[in-house]
């Protein structure tokens, strides 16, 4: 080496030294590549053998050395062995007390009487709830800030009944709902025509919404009219939504076709009723004969 360093190198010697350096560099790169591949296989092999567990990979970048290219970048796709990890549609929460589970920091609060108390921190809302012994109910979460209300247990129960009645009276998918409205001062022949129309719709298994408006100066009870209509079509119809006051001077109900089970029960009741009426008539005849 001293003779080489002391003397001037020829072009051939210089080229030879450069080639040797390149070969040493390539050798080191190959060793590094084999080591990287070995550790990468070991890492993923451990993960893939854990099939009994349920885990989820998040997307991440990995660098794979390559002899021909300096580096190859690839984005791994999320991998999941849990079938239930797919995005589930958000279910609407049932109306009721949320307890102390409030995910929002700021909320709009309404008091027990329905008056707005404005926006406040959830800690203040919980403090008011505890002070008055009330329950906190979520009314709307699609606004900013979400709206909550302080309510008693009785108020929550009544609201749940109203919503259940409304849901029950709303027509199901595929069911046709017909509507019929008239005044409480309707003439007898017009009422008969309306009742026949209702019977035809019931026969086709449609829902029929009947609305009666209280006429000025009329003393007719609207609920009596509803009962008369149901009695006329009672062989196949029943209330889906019982008569109620929709607003001042207006009452409504919804009729539907009875199910097969309900029809059988109705026929049994009619048979019992008719037999009871016949027994009463026979007893009256016997009593008359005895008095004669």
From TrEMBL:
Listed GO MF terms: ribosome binding; translation initiation factor activity
Keywords linked to the UniProt accession: Initiation factor, Protein biosynthesis
Record GO biological process: mitochondrial translational initiation; ribosome disassembly
Annotated stretches, region: Disordered: 263-292
Pfam families recorded: IF3_N (PF05198)
SUPFAM superfamilies: Translation initiation factor IF3, C-terminal domain, Translation initiation factor IF3, N-terminal domain
Tree of life domain: Eukaryota
Gene Ontology CC terms: mitochondrion
Domain Translation initiation factor 3 N-terminal, first and last residues per copy: 99-165
NCBIfam families registered for this protein in UniProt: infC
Family as reported in the entry's similarity comment: Belongs to the IF-3 family.
PANTHER family documented for this protein: TRANSLATION INITIATION FACTOR IF-3, TRANSLATION INITIATION FACTOR IF-3, MITOCHONDRIAL
Protein name: Mitochondrial translational initiation factor 3
Gene for this chain: MTIF3
């Amino acid at each position: 080496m001293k003779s080489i360093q002391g003397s001037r190198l020829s072009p051939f010697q210089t080229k030879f030294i450069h080639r040797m350096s390149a070969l040493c560099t390539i050798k080191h790169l190959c060793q590094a590549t084999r080591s990287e591949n070995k550790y990468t296989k070991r890492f993923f092999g451990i993960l893939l053998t854990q099939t009994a567990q349920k885990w989820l990979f998040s997307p991440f970048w990995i660098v794979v050395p390559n002899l021909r290219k300096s580096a190859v970048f690839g984005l791994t796709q999320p991998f999941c062995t849990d079938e239930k990890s797919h995005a589930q549609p958000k279910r609407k929460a049932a109306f009721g007390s949320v307890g102390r589970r409030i995910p929002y920091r700021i909320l709009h609060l309404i008091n027990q009487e329905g008056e707005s108390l404005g926006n406040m921190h959830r800690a203040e809302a919980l403090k008011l709830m505890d002070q008055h012994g009330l329950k906190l109910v979520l009314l709307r979460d699609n606004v900013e800030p979400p709206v909550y209300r302080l309510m008693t247990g009785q108020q929550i129960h009544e609201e749940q009944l109203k919503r259940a009645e409304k849901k029950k009276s709303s027509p199901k998918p595929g069911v046709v709902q017909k509507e019929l409205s008239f005044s409480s001062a309707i003439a007898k022949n017009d009422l008969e025509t309306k009742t026949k129309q209702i019977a035809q719709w019931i026969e086709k298994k449609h829902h029929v919404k009947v609305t009666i408006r209280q006429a000025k100066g009329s003393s007719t009870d609207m609920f009596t009219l509803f009962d008369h209509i149901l009695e006329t079509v009672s062989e196949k119809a029943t209330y889906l939504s019982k008569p109620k006051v929709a607003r001042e001077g207006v009452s409504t109900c919804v009729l539907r076709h009875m199910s097969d089970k309900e029809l059988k029960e109705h026929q049994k009741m009619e048979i019992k009723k008719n037999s009871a009426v016949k027994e009463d008539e026979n007893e009256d005849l016997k009593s008359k004969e005895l008095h004669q």
